Amino acid sequence: MRSGTATLATALIVTPLVAQAQPFQGLYIGAGAGYNLSHDIGLQTPTPFSPRAELQASGGLVGLGSIGYGLGNGIRFELEGNYRHANIDGISHVGPVTASGTLQTYGVMANALFDMDIGSPWIYPYVGGGVGYAWTHVGNEVITPVGSPFITTAEGTKGGLAVQAIAGLSFAIPHVPGLSLTSEYRFFSILSKTTFTTHTVGVPFSQEASLLKQYNHSFLLGVRYAFNVAAPAPVAPAAAMAPAPAPSRSYLVFFYWDKATLTDRARQIIKEAADNSTRVQYTRIEVNGYTDTSGTRQYNQGLSVRRAQAVQAELVRDGVPQGAITIQGFGDTKLLVQTSPGVREPQNRRVEIVIR
Known about the structure:
This protein is mainly beta. 13% of the residues lie in helices and 50% in strands. The protein is built from 3 helices and 17 strands. The strands form 2 sheets. Strands 1, 2, 3, 4, 5, 6, 7, 8, 9, 10, 11, 12 and 13 form a 13-stranded antiparallel sheet that branches.
């Protein structure tokens, strides 16, 4: 069971990130709460009951809060504080011995996550992982052999290295820019052995008992708010049509987000422009590239030039003399649809072919 969950955690962390990234940039905060299912915990003592002794832990509350920063390309980093609670209900793989008490963990984690765009405007899957430090607090843990007057107790707080793997879904709330609901699973483990001092009634000396690696499965619902996500600017219905002033002299070719490759539809439009250029008298053909506002100014300028170059190459393949074509990139200026910074507007990701 433990090897299987460890494999799952590793797989979540190293999953190839092949989907497009959600354009999320800037400071955000988040919180979540739910149910935590704890594995039984290995118990080690100087004179162990059994080499396989395990404390039986029941499920309990989990809660966390985080503050982070998105880079705008789907990657974000955050600091998280978390809390988990479980009850100790017994002890297994030993003789007639009972155990009871509470187990609480407090953790501080540094996480790296990746948001993915699957084509839906409201649902974004994400995966990630984290590393940090967690404290285990044993509250009045009691271990008692059945029928024996020797009652052993332990109480205290100890810390150790912790890691986690994260997989979730965020649901953007319509009409509230930056606000999302989240649903996620976390595999959380304290890797370090935590050692506590125990006292047995009637015994004049104390001993030490250690909890071995702790494994937790956490299921949470939460909320996240990004501070700098602006609402899309109002757009007149006519502006959303990507108009061409004169169909025989001006053509628009559109691109996927962060791409400079031509779609089949784009090649059809370019072919139509090339064919029509032979039917009219022209002095030059202008190919102008543009982007939306979701990237940096410098990156968008280069992307707009690459898009114009792709269209120019296709025109040449369709029979237009290269010397008759001039290309220029305008980056995220001269927007077809006016938006705020950081908005991924499809109609702004274009190249305009103008036959003059």
